[in-house]
Design a protein that fits this description.
By secondary structure, this protein is an alpha+beta fold. It is 35% helix and 25% strand. Helix 8 runs antiparallel to helix 11. It is elongated. 38% of the residues are buried.
């Protein structure tokens, strides 16, 4: 028959498993609560042949006051129109590349849909992650255009472009792809070109302005992301951090500045930056408009009249004399937070991979982990080898703590005798115990050193596993097909709890009975806690415990052998 203590342990484990399953169900059913966006306007009427149709401007659905005022631009501008309607497929130009699957609305030339074919939304499903969408349930689009004195993108109108085709495809190894949209008005021809590369998430958007009129053309390029405040998924439970969903900028004062959508409810964000970028972030992915490095651009974030938010920039004014042509451009990134690629696109854009206050430790940990992975081609094995490397690096300091614990285990019989002798005099007992520690070279707090040394690495690696898209849906072996998600069968947490228990057997028990009872429950508590942690992090901690067990066993046996030799 089971003892009372074993029954209690079995009951705690059972309650932990049931609690975890209940939490999973709760998160699935209620963890994605979000604010419903306001209802969208009715669809616009569609031209008979929008692809080859006339170049007359069509009215947009922007409400008055949605566009930024003149004070946002440098110099002043008339504003930015923002259509939010659902349109028929006939007005969409679809583009397919190995990395992007998107749709461009001929009214304004905005990107209104965008999916990532290489990133499934759920493991073993063909449905890709969708970043951009324009529907009655969600608004998240990338807009750009020409505004200012002669710009055709205005408060109540958008230019209707024509295109040579409605569907473009770029295969692997097929070079680059250019999608050109054309608009003619008042003697000025504007060609809006989207330039795609076969294996990249960066799109260059160029405006060729050919002024065949009799007066000079003045206008400004704008580029913005329009989004509601809904969250893209239910990732993140109350046991872990909630992924950030919101805007971010780089500024002269802050290399990486997050601006919550809620902050924009209270007022606009405005700043002038040389080059710079404006981004909208979510877990693992982002979209960003990047300004020309040689220009001072006016960046902004604000709440629109329809309840959505706009994040972007306005470039300096461009002047095109009669009979001349000029080109103005911006770059648009939509894809995963791949640090090396983001770093190459624009200064500080890689900081959108937000590792928190331990970034100075997380960044080198990731690059070491990535270097190991490039050799072994398995993120789980890379974590094991990284753990071994960290253990070797910290071996001299950790050995001090293990020696202290071994010494404490040796003096335990003498401590018990002192406790019996001075049971009624706590002050005398404390003095005698301190004298014993000095005599034997033991330190009751030395055993905390290995744990304290591991804690910064533990938290830094947690953020690496949580934030790095490279480990999203990364398989290890057998049942573990996602190192960034909890172990579905709890095997790693249980093995960790067992290793924790074995560690306690090698350590001396605390002299205080209450502390001893608390320590006995620690393996169970940590096992339940680690059920909710990413499998990769539990793997790191399990391997670390196994290596610590081997190190502590070796040091303990060595000290015991030396003590036996000395006593003989």
């Amino acid at each position: 028959m089971l003892t009372t203590e074993i029954q209690r342990i079995v009951l705690l484990i059972a309650l932990g498993v049931v609690g975890y399953l209940l939490l999973q169900a709760w998160t699935r059913d209620y963890g994605q609560a979000s604010e419903e966006p306001p209802p969208l306007a009715s669809p616009l009427p569609i031209a008979d042949d929008p692809v080859a149709g006339p170049s007359d401007d069509l009215p947009s659905s922007s409400a008055p006051g949605d566009v930024p005022g003149d004070d946002l631009a440098v110099p002043a501008t008339r504003g930015i129109p923002e259509p939010t309607v659902t349109v028929a497929d006939e007005r969409l130009v679809r583009v397919h590349t190995p990395t992007l699957d998107l749709a461009i609305d001929l009214l304004g030339g905005d990107i209104v849909e965008l999916r990532l074919p290489k990133y499934p939304a759920v493991i073993d499903e063909d449905r890709p992650v969708q970043l951009l969408e324009r529907s009655r349930g969600h608004t998240y689009i990338a807009q750009s255009g020409l505004i200012g004195r002669d710009g055709r993108d205005r408060q109540d109108t958008r230019p209707l472009y024509s295109a040579g085709a409605r569907d473009y495809t770029l295969d692997d190894g097929g070079g680059s792809l250019t999608v050109a949209l054309t608009h003619h008005a008042e003697g000025v021809t504007v060609v809006k070109r989207f330039l795609f590369e076969p294996d990249d998430y960066l799109v260059t958007v160029e405006y060729d302005i050919d002024n065949a009129g009799t007066t000079e053309y003045r206008g400004q390029l704008f580029a913005q992301l329009k989004r509601d405040s809904t969250r893209p998924d239910a990732s993140g439970t109350f046991m872990g951090p909630r992924p950030y969903v919101g805007a971010a900028f780089t500024t002269p004062e802050s290399r990486y500045e997050k601006v919550d959508f809620e902050d924009l409810d209270d007022g606009q964000f405005r700043i002038a930056v040389a080059g710079g970028w404006a981004a909208v972030l979510q877990h693992y992915f982002l979209t960003a408009w990047v300004g020309a490095a040689e220009e001072v651009n006016a960046y902004y974030g604000r709440r629109l009249g329809d309840g959505n938010y706009a994040v972007g920039f306005i470039a300096p004014e461009i002047v095109v004399p009669p009979g001349r042509s000029e080109t103005v451009a911006a770059r648009f990134y939509a894809g995963p937070k791949i640090q090396k690629r983001l770093e190459a696109i624009a200064p500080n854009l890689n900081l959108t991979v937000d590792y928190g206050f331990l970034w100075w430790l997380s960044v080198p940990l990731f690059y070491v982990l990535d270097a190991i992975h490039s050799v072994v081609l398995n993120w789980g094995i890379a974590i094991i080898l990284l753990t071994l490397a960290v253990k070797i690096l910290l071996f001299p300091l950790a050995s001090v703590g293990f020696r202290s614990m071994a010494k404490m285990k040796q003096v335990m019989p003498q401590m018990k005798r002192l406790q019996e002798r001075h049971a009624g005099d706590r002050q005398k007992l404390s003095q005698e115990m301190m004298a014993l520690y000095r005599k034997e070279g033991a330190n009751p707090f030395g055993g905390c050193l290995p744990l304290l040394l591991q804690m910064p690495v533990f938290f830094a690696l947690y953020w690496v596993l949580y934030e790095s898209v490279e480990l999203r849906q990364a398989p290890f072996m057998l049942w573990i097909n996602d190192l960034a998600a909890p172990d579905p069968w709890f095997v790693l947490p249980i093995l960790y709890g067992a290793s924790f228990f074995l560690m306690q057997l090698l350590n001396p028990p605390p002299p205080d009975p209450m502390q001893a009872r608390v320590m006995k429950t620690m393996p169970i508590l940590f096992t339940v806690l680690f059920v909710f942690f990413p499998a990769g992090l539990v793997l790191y901690w399990l391997v670390n415990n196994i290596l610590s067990l081997a190190q502590q066993w070796y040091i303990t046996r060595k000290i015991e052998a030396a003590s036996a030799t000395k006593s003989s």
